[in-house]
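User: Before I run my own analysis I want an independent prediction to cross-check against. Here's the chain; please return only the structure tokens and, at the end, one sentence I can use as a sanity check.
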Amino acid sequence: MVAVTPAEPPAPPDTVTAPLTADVHPARLDPVIHERLRLAIMCTLAVHASMPFLDLARHLGMTKGNLHIHAKRLEEVGHIQSTRHGDGRDTRTTFALTRAGRKALERYFVQLEAIIAATRRA
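Assistant: Structure tokens:
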């Protein structure tokens, strides 16, 4: 009887040098992060440990209403967290990137780099 050894599983493709596929395609980018202003919020919070609401709005040139809507969406999916300080009229909100948000942003960058690499080779 001849012993049959199972074949080695194929190595995973290098996502930075692989051609555009279903996994490495612009349509697969996280739509929550990919929106221009939400990406700006995520990148800013990746650099700053936390940032007060008004400072973030000024830094990004956003209106308070616009920041509120985009931050709410990012918070709903767990990418950022808000913390309220004070009470009454002195309440201040601070935003920070969550651990899951940092991982999602890193995954977004890896996918984007793969798309760029595949496009440059085309």
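Sanity check: The first strand starts at residue 51 and ends at 52.
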